[in-house]
Amino acid sequence: MRHKQTVLIIDYGSQYTQLIARRIREQSVYSEILPHSVKTDEIIQRSPTAVVLSGGPDSVYAEGAPVLDSAIMEMGIPVLGICYGFGLLMTYDGGVVKANGQREYGFAELSVENGSKLFSGVTDKTQVWMSHGDAVDELPENWSVLARSGNGVLAAAERDGGVVLGTQFHPEVIHTTEGKQILSNFLFNVAGCKKDWTPASFVTSTVEELRDTLGDKRVLCAVSGGVDSAVMAKLIYEAIGDQLRCIFVDHGLLRKNEPDYIQERLKESLGFPIEYHNFSDDFLSKLNGVTDPEEKRSIIGEQFIRSFESAALTGGDFKFLAQGTLYPDVIESGGVWGTADVIKSHHNVGGLPEDIGFKLIEPLRELFKDEVREVGKELGLPPDVLGRHPFPGPGLGVRIIGEITEERVEILQEADHIFIEALKVHGIYDEIWQAFAVLVPVKTVGVMGDERTYANLIALRAVTSVDGMTADWYRMPENVLSEVSNKIVNSVAGVNRVVYDVSSKPPSTIEWE
Q1: Among 11, 255, 418, 472, which residue's Cβ finds the most Cβ atoms within 10 Å?
Q2: Residues with active-site annotation
């Protein structure tokens, strides 16, 4: 997508880098993450309005530590360095950063010493979040102190009249109580950004770009029943109308009654046809005996493409395949530039075969999940469609630990359906970002009707989140857990034990595989 303005975030490995991007976008300014290894030409090509240098786990003086691309400083645009990024700015201008025994982790009191655009509207003493072992020992001559921590550590400074700034603390985390104001000051008071990243502007720009790119070409669209593919299909339909052909592939790893939902409620909400194609036998046969999670994802990703190629043969010539890839999918599958650690391969990013017969169209690739929902509202999709919990592309294939069989799929479908329906009945479904059941084919001993049983374990998972990049486990009411557990054990054959997952992300991922 074309952007009138972009704030680039150079990632040096901080656990908070995605939060920086989120906080900037929350202020209706487009932000994009690039790895510290990005080439200078790529930075210049984007013509950024401003640059933010993230934190990171390294020491700036350590051998092999990431360095600052001098081109960033030579562009004459506002720069904000955070933690490690602040240290890079210091060393670039000849300052000294070292481990001086003043390590700070957690809450700290910030004392603002000098007036600056960065601290406009911020109280003189405010709470911030620190996470550093190194600190600025000698400030370069062309820099001015703005604030110090309660321990006397230099916590913020500026040069060039406040065009280049640095903070030792992290303004992007919620623990920094006035962090939103500080970032807002950088964006609008220092960098002169405009609030032009809105759902309406995204729809207008994307529809225009899709029309220019596609012309009179026809597009094959993968509709899964989830929020992402529904919004994507509606967006593309706004651009090219009947040139779009939507296909729903049943891979046999869906939620209970999902085909009925697709062909009835979703079709009605979108306002255009969705073809149903059942390839479940093909998927299940390919997955026979496979237990490795990444291999399962790869098989499912490739079979998706083969299924769409088969479906496309019946409806004319298609050059483009549309997918609902999101920004977190890209990040978790290896990053925008393929330099981040792969947390897991998403089937619509890392699980695709190399020899696909289509050119991919991914109009939501730059969006976080909550942004997708806002775009869906702008397009007029109803709340019950936009409020559905996320469902992975590989479906129940990554919620069945180990081998996938038809029997295990049926067990999980029933258990999951009981869980989700209970959340809706008790009015807490919308409080939860994502909830689902996992089949753990580890046999456990139980007793039913005075008889010994040896059956499967079901794990229940429910989390709260904003965009899926981080998540906390949902504090499920005890009566709901009791009701769901009893119903699953009593009505789902092959299950005799239910547990509840109380892990957050990080360190765990939301899905189990």
Answers
A1: 11
A2: 83, 170, 172
